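Colleagues,

For the teaching module next term, I've prepared a clean inverse folding example: a structure given as C-alpha cells, and then the sequence designed for it. I'd like students to try predicting residues themselves before seeing the answer, so please don't circulate the second half yet.
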C-alpha cells in the first residue's frame, strides 16, 4: 500500500494567558516541532483561543499549512474574545480552511470540553503549550492532554525556557 502523502493533522491545546515574549518563544518552538513531525506542511486543528491557539494558527500559516477551527459555542467571539483582540481573531477565523460549530449556544465548561474532545478526535498528533501545572477546570490544558493520551494520540508538550504566563484576571 502506498504511503499517505496527505498532510499530518496536528491539534493544539494550551494556555491563553501568555506574555508577548512567550508567544514569540512558543512560535519558535512550534516551528521546530511541526518540522520534526512532518517534512511537509501540516493541517492544524484549533479552537482559536487567545494565546497558544492563535500562535499555532499563525505559525501554521507561516509554514504554508492550513488549519480548521472548532468554535466551542455560538457566542464564543462575543463572550470570550476581548474586544481589542477581535480583529486578530476575525482575521484568523477568515483564513481557516473550515470552521466547525459544536452546536452549543453558550461558551461554558461543557462547550469547551466538547470542543477539546472534538479537536482530539480530528487529529493524528497533539501539541500542548503547557507549563506543567494542573488546571482548575475540566477543559484545562492538562485534561485535554490526558484525554488525548487516553485515546492514543501522541502528544508533545512545549514550554520553552523563559516562558511565562500572565496572571488570569477576574
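(Answer key — instructors only)
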Amino acid at each position: 500500500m502506498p504511503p499517505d502523502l496527505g498532510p499530518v493533522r496536528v491539534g493544539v491545546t494550551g494556555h491563553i494567558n501568555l506574555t508577548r515574549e512567550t508567544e514569540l518563544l512558543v512560535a519558535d518552538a512550534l516551528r521546530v516541532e511541526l518540522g520534526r513531525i512532518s517534512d511537509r506542511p501540516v493541517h492544524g486543528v484549533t479552537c482559536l483561543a487567545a494565546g497558544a491557539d492563535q500562535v499555532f494558527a499563525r505559525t501554521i500559516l507561516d509554514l504554508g499549512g492550513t488549519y480548521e477551527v472548532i468554535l466551542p459555542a455560538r457566542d464564543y467571539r462575543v463572550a470570550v474574545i476581548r474586544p481589542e483582540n477581535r480583529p486578530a481573531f476575525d482575521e484568523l477565523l477568515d483564513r481557516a480552511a473550515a470552521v466547525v460549530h459544536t452546536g452549543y449556544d453558550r461558551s461554558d465548561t461543557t462547550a469547551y470540553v466538547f470542543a477539546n474532545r472534538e479537536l482530539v478526535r480530528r487529529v493524528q498528533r497533539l501539541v500542548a503549550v503547557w507549563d506543567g501545572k494542573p488546571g482548575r477546570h475540566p477543559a484545562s490544558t492538562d485534561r485535554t492532554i490526558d484525554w488525548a493520551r487516553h485515546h492514543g494520540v501522541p502528544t508533545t508538550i512545549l514550554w520553552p525556557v523563559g516562558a511565562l504566563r500572565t496572571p488570569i484576571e477576574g
